[in-house]
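Q: I'm writing up a methods section and want to include an example of the input and output format. Could you take the sequence below and give the corresponding predicted C-alpha cells, formatted cleanly so I can copy it straight into the document?
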Amino acid sequence: MSAISASKERYEPVLKPPLVALLQALCTVVPLTLALMLLSSSSLFSSVTVELGLQHYAERRPAWLNWLPEQLPMPLNTAVNMGYILCGIYWCFFIAEANRMGFVKCREAFLFYVFNIMSCVYGFVQGYRIIVQSHASAVMDQWYTLPFFMLVFVTLRSFRKGWSTLPFVVLMFASVVSYSLTLLTNVGFEIALGCHILVAVTEAVLMLLRYPSEDSQLYFILGALSCAGFVGLKLLDLELPKFHWFFTYISGHFLSKISDILQIHFTNEFFFAMIFSVHVGEADFSSFKLKSG
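A: Here is the clean output for your methods example:
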C-alpha cells in the first residue's frame, strides 16, 4: 500500500464533506465582517486618526487613462485588490480538493477557508477604501487587517497543539478588541499590527523548529520577505517618487499590495506544507502537489 493510500485511509474516518467546512467558515467570517462594518460606521471610532485623500498616496493617473471615471484616480491601487480575491478563491478550490481527497481534515479545511474567505473580503474592503476615501472605510480597512494576521497564529497553533474552540474564539476576540488602542494613541493601529505580526512570525518559527522541512523553510522565507515588502514599500510610498517619476505610476503602495498578496499565497503554502510535516509526511506532500498540479 502506498504512503498516499495509507494517509487517506488514516484520515477519511474523521472527514466531513468539504461543503460543511466551507459553510462553517462562512458562518464565522460573515458575522465578524458585518460586526466590524457596523462598528466602523458608528461614532465609536470617529476620533481615530486615519489617512484620507490622494495626498497620502504617490500614484497619479497617467494621461492616457483620463477616460476612466473620476472615482478612479488611482487605477492600479484599485485594480490590485482583485489579487486578494483571486488568491482567496484559488486556495478555497485547492483546499476543497485536498479535503475531498483526504489530505486535509475538516477542521484544517475550516481554518484555510476562514483565512481565504477573509482574503476575498479584504480585497473588497481595500478597494472600497481606495475609491470612496471615507473615514469609515479607512477604519474598516485597518481593523480587518488585525484578525487576518491573528488567523496565521491561530492556525499554526492549532497545528501544533490541536484544535480547541475556546482559544480560537478568545484569540480572535482579543485581536478585534486590540483595535481599541487607536482610541488611546495615534499610533494604536501600528502598535497592534506590529504585535500581531510578531506573534504570527514567532509561532511560525516555533513550528519550523518542531517540524523542519525544506518546503516549510522555503515558504517561511518567501512569506517573511513578502511581509517585509508589504510593510516597507507602504512606508516608502511617498518617498520613492523622489528618486524616479516611475513610482508615481507604479507606486510603493501598489507594490506593497503585490507583496501582501504574495504573503497570503506563501502563508497558505506554509500552512499546507506544515499539515504534511505534522500529520502525513513530506513524501505525500510532494505526491499531492504533483497530482493536483
